[in-house]
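Notes, p. 3: input format for complexes.
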Amino acid sequence: MKKTILIGVSGGIACYKAIEVVNQLKKEGYNVEVIMTRAAQEFIAPLTFKTMSHNPVITDMFDPVREWDTKHIDLAKAADVFVIVPATANIIGKIANGIADDMLTTTVMAARSPVLIFPAMNTFMYENTILQENIEKLKKHGYHVYGTAKGELACGDIGTGKLLDWQEIVKEIKTFL
Ligand SMILES: Cc1cc2nc3c(=O)[nH]c(=O)nc-3n(C[C@H](O)[C@H](O)[C@H](O)COP(=O)(O)O)c2cc1C
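Output follows (177 residues plus flavin mononucleotide):
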């Protein structure tokens, strides 16, 4: 049976790299489901992920079409691996503190599969001690939080916080399948 990879996309400029991740995993024959935060939809239209994954994209906790079901639980159960890419400082902070106020964070809360988190943000945000404490807390609770690359960021700064290359992300995901 096809393995299911659940991809959570949060609202960072590196969202576009998640498109390649989804594209590659779909090409390799996996079932790929995508959840986008509201902020992520400011960067990329859900239609792009829908077209790449061949699945509807989940964008809203209270979608009237699905009001009657508990999609977050179904997705959490279906996932063989759950990947958050890119992971914003905000989403990391919310997960680390048990906040479940949207579809992505609520589904993470219900997850039983390995959860892989790929942070991406400005260097100053990444080096913020609260963010680093949140990452340590997530690791302590069994989440797989990856490092970042060093290089030129979208804001023009040079430093850490850059999302890993999509090829590396795909390789890491496949080690869990
Ligand atoms: C142009 C732009 C780029 C951004 N890039 C990032 C980013 O790379 N990483 C990050 O943590 N936040 C970034 N943000 C801020 C997030 O969008 C903001 O914190 C948002 O609340 C995140 O929501 P979410 O975590 O629910 O997706 C950016 C904001 C803007 C306007």
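Strands lie at 4-9, 31-36, 81-87, 115-119, 144-145, 149-152, 158-162.
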